[in-house]
């Protein structure tokens, strides 16, 4: 097969021109297509196809792409490790690269590193060094080969976790013997919205106007219903390549909004996998020229928000008689509702209105198969008498380290007073 530069799908032009004289006006007007050579009148090559490369500005269009796709594995044992950490806002991701002398499989094989915390809002300029501790390793779907993505958390030079390091506290909770013995499982449903880069308006929406009302877009198919599928599919495959425990994807209710699910993951791994999946999604949207937002209410009005529903179960919940354990967990969660809401994401009050498949932010509720409750229990869990619960309160921009560890703490380590428990049990009984 031979490669020729042809007009992209966005341009409709009828031209007749010889290849030797063809010069595109700009590189982004052209995309690559493949064609089979004619048997007659074409030059013979060992590959049986002839490559034609259109040129502009004295360079070929695909030169940079070739370098980006260059496989260095046959030539060196060295690899590139992309160190990834969470910035000062608690939701922004940062990363930088370093060369490692050989392939590695475990974060303990990697060196600690540092960065300028004054440039990420995490340290003062006069004492700006923040140290990165490698915590989880994933394969790099962008560079391929033995190259890796490294999820890190951040510490002061004295070895103290900085305030935005939420992983450290989560790891403490998950290492508690009582929590560890219950093998907490998490399935996290990460919703996100794709925006047009210049106008910050959802992908597929008319600029300055609205599409048709919600209804046909959820899991929809078609050019007038599905916007951004290629990004979702590219992300799905990249996560599988990286070793992320991604379990599915779907188009969401708001047009231009998508969801991916990660899990079941045990303990601290749930947070590591979500953060790495978010990083990969940021990189893919960066390459696509599309803006990613995790805002919990990207469009005001009669439109669904974006959540990060967190499914949770313990060993006791998954065994016979687990439904009673689930109800006890829900009781504890009701008593700590304000603590959870305060930690479940910035701007969540714009999403949790009691409309659009949410519960009101100020009221705790639970129900079977009810997506308008704070906590939903599935029909199958009720039928089997064991299973899991779904916390529908977390916003799309929540920190998974905080949410997963808080669920474990509230249901496995925290004990209410008998009086508070009795009052809560009565309220919840009336709520069902």
Compile the SSE list and pairings.
Elements: E1 2-7, E2 30-35, E3 55-56, E4 59-60, H1 63-68, E5 79-86, E6 93-100, E7 113-116, E8 129-139, E9 148-155, H2 166-174, H3 177-181, E10 185-195, H4 229-242, E11 246-251, E12 257-266, H5 268-288, E13 291-293, E14 308-313, H6 315-318, H7 322-335, H8 337-342, E15 366-368, E16 375-377, H9 379-384, E17 389-391, H10 400-413, H11 418-431
Parallel strand pairs: 5-9, 15-16
Antiparallel strand pairs: 1-2, 3-4, 5-6, 7-8, 8-9, 10-12, 10-13, 10-14, 11-12, 14-17, 16-17
Describe this structure in words.
With 432 residues, the protein is of the alpha+beta class. It has 3 domains: 2-68, no CATH class; 79-163, Ubiquitin-like (UB roll); 177-431, Creatine Kinase, Chain A, domain 2. It has helices at residues 63-68, 166-174, 177-181, 229-242, 268-288, 315-318, 322-335, 337-342, 379-384, 400-413, 418-431; strands at 2-7, 30-35, 55-56, 59-60, 79-86, 93-100, 113-116, 129-139, 148-155, 185-195, 246-251, 257-266, 291-293, 308-313, 366-368, 375-377, 389-391. The strands form 4 sheets. Strands 10, 11, 12, 13, 14, 15, 16 and 17 form an 8-stranded mixed sheet that branches. Strands 6-5-9-8-7 form a 5-stranded mixed sheet, covered by helices on one side. A two-stranded antiparallel ribbon has the order 1-2. α4 (229-242) packs across α5 (268-288) and α7 (322-335) crosses α10 (400-413). Residues 1-56 have low confidence and may be disordered. It holds the Pfam family Gln-synt_C.
């Amino acid at each position: 097969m031979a490669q020729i530069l042809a007009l992209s799908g966005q341009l409709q032009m009828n031209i007749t021109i010889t290849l030797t004289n063809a010069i595109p006006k700009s590189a982004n007007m052209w995309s690559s297509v493949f064609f089979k050579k004619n048997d007659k009148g074409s030059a013979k090559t060992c590959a049986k196809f002839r490559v034609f490369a259109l040129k502009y500005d004295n360079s070929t269009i695909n030169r940079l792409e070739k370098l980006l796709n260059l496989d260095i594995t046959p030539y060196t044992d060295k690899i590139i490790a992309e160190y990834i950490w969470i910035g000062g806002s608690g939701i922004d991701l940062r990363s930088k690269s370093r060369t490692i002398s050989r392939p590695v499989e475990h974060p303990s094989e990697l060196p600690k590193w540092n960065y300028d915390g004054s440039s990420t809002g995490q340290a003062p300029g006069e004492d700006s060094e923040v140290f990165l501790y490698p915590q989880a390793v994933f394969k790099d779907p962008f560079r391929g080969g033995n190259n890796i993505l490294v999820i890190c958390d951040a510490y002061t030079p004295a070895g103290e976790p900085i305030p935005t390091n939420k992983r450290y506290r989560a790891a403490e909770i998950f290492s508690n013997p009582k929590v560890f013995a219950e093998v907490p499982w998490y399935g996290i449903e990460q919703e996100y919205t794709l925006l047009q880069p210049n106008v910050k308006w959802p992908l597929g929406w008319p600029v300055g106007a609205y599409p048709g009302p919600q209804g046909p877009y959820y899991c929809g198919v078609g050019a007038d219903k599905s916007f951004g599928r290629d990004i979702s599919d590219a992300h799905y495959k990249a996560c599988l390549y990286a070793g992320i425990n991604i379990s599915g994807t779907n188009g969401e209710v708001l047009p231009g909004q998508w969801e991916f699910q990660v899990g079941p993951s045990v303990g601290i791994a749930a947070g590591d996998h979500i953060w790495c999946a978010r990083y990969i999604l940021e990189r893919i949207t960066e390459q696509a020229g599309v803006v990613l937002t995790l805002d919990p209410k990207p469009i005001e009005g009669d439109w669904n928000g974006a959540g990060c529903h967190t499914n949770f179960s313990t060993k006791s919940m998954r065994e016979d008689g687990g439904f009673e354990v689930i109800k006890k967990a829900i009781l504890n969660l009701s008593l700590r509702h304000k603590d959870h809401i305060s930690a479940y994401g910035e701007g969540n009050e714009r999403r949790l209105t009691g409309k659009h498949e949410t519960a009101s932010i100020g009221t705790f509720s639970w129900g079977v198969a009810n997506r308008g409750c704070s906590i939903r229990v599935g029909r199958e869990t009720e039928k089997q008498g064991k299973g899991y619960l779904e916390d529908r309160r977390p916003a799309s921009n929540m920190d998974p380290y905080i949410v997963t560890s808080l669920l474990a703490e509230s249901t496995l380590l925290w004990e209410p007073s008998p009086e508070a428990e009795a009052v809560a049990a009565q309220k919840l009984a009336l709520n069902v």
